[in-house]
Amino acid sequence: MRGLRGRLAAAGALLALSACTGGGSTTAASGNAGATAAAPATSTTTAAATTGPCTLRARQDWALAQLRDWYLFPETLPTNVDPAAFTTVQAYIDALTATARAQGRDRNFTFITSIAGENAFFNSGSSAGFGVRLAFDAQQRLFIAEAFEGAPALAAGIDRGAEIIAIGTTTANLATVASLLASGGSGAVNEALGPSTAGTTRVLRIADAAGTRNISVTKADFALTPVSSRYGARIITDGGQRVGYINLRTFISTADPALRSAFADFRAQGITRVIFDLRYNGGGLVSTAELIGDLLGGARTTSQVFSFTTFRPERSSNNSTRNFSPQPQSISPMQIAFIGTSGTASASELVINAMIPYLRANAALIGSNTDGKPVGQIALDMAACDDRLRVVAFATLNADRRGDYFNGLASVVEASCRAPDDLTRPLGDPAEGSVRAALDFLAGRACAPITATATAGTGPAPQSTPVRLDAPNELLIADDPDAMQRQVPGAF
Questions:
Q1: pLDDT at 21
Q2: DSSP letter, residue 169
Q3: Cα dist from 4 to 8, 12, 319, 459, whole Å
Q4: How far apart are CA 413 and CA 405, in angstroms?
């Protein structure tokens, strides 16, 4: 992150995915967090450990030392947790951060991950999987919320709005999603989908507009396109008004050229109203969040604050201020409609929060309440063991020094409109529920505000039973998430 010096590399913007949080739940809020930046730091507190054997105890001791040195909430760390009682480094970390988690300040945002795996994702979006994002509706049916270009599922004809009825390794042992949930909850569904390794094959019984059929899909390595080539950037004409639409899947470095290109087009066409669709975006690189601020900040000056980053008192020398830096592609929006859900976290929330002091009620949250992660992680490496510890180490504030949205942004934004995530329509479609509500806001039409507890959720395409399009929905979160799954909630 710009402004952090020395060994530090800010891993994340706030909230949720990018550097961040653990899985094990079907709620997006617990599964993601993310903002990450620059090269990770290597601890000097226990430097000897990086050259020693990678025993469980050595790795646990190293993790404890980093938490004592950097953790944003040091007063919550216990002094009497026996590492011998835990069989993994992550389980030990969970015990050490239990108090902050109970207080809602670290909801699985501190975790251990693979250096190689995370670098591959942040540098190029590389991962292995079917290339879909999965979500449950209010009736606990499993749907494709999004399918990624260049990945196996979309190539097999599986796209947004399709229901997964059953999962198996062959057609002979297909198990219905309903039976899996009944026997083992979302964990059973996770297990049925198989590991995130290339070559894993599953048979999925799919129901969509083309009918019900069995499709065999094999997980493969693919590079996630952060701005979709199908609907990621476009100009929508609505009632004679032209609106720029951007859908960003995650904050990784490969998003930067696509963002610059989209905003250059907006600038050339005089766009002053923008829909920024972050509905599933769990976060990622702070540097990408800063670029977005610059691209939206054509009317800002280099003396105006985008964000403040603050560490605990003992680490205050790392505090920094990031001012706007308008780019050749920057625009000066009069209004911005940010589409969000409980899957919107971290760097996504950072961008939204940063625009409030300048646009006030002209910057609205559309959809449902966001995750709520106004803290970020740094990266600390134990290179010999391929261990990267993502430690919640800083808070990020906007120019008003507001960053108190652990309960989501619904109570912080000055304007909001409750809207459904409508799976009966493609993302970016002017008739899709949240896009329609965003267009209505930009046109000055009235709407029902989002409350801190209200969720719009994802409405599936009608199958045998009608479903309320404003019914609550939850992204399916991997039990043991890889780097992409932490940044891209619901990804498999």
A1: 28
A2: S
A3: 6, 12, 7, 42
A4: 10
DSSP letters for 330-350: ----SEEEEEE-TT--THHHH
Cβ within 8 Å of residue 120, ≥6 positions away? 126, 127, 483
CA angle 48, 50, 56 (to 5 degrees): 105
Mean residue pLDDT across the chain: 87
Pick the closest to residue 127 from 279, 280, 24, 252 (CA basis). 252
DSSP structure string for 244-284: EEEE---B-TTHHHHHHHHHHHHHHTT--EEEEE-TT---E
**In sequence order, what are the beta bridge partners of 216?**
203
Q: What are 215's two structure tokens? A: 């499709």
pLDDT in tens, 204-216: 999 999 999 999 9
Q: What is the pLDDT of residue 53?
A: 80
165 vs 152, 174, 175, 206, 458, CA distance in Å? Answer: 18, 9, 8, 6, 17
Give the pLDDT confidence score for residue 309 in this predicted structure: 97
Q: How far apart are CA 294 and CA 275, in angstroms?
A: 16
For the segment 342-368, the average pLDDT, to the nearest whole number, is 97
Distance CA 235, CA 237 (A): 7
Q: Read off the pLDDT of residues 176-191 as tens digits, 9 standing for 90 and up.
A: 999 999 999 999 999 9
Per the rule left: phi > 0, alpha: psi between -120 and 50, beta: everything else, 476 is beta
**Residue from 171, 166, 158, 172 nearest 142 by CA:** 166
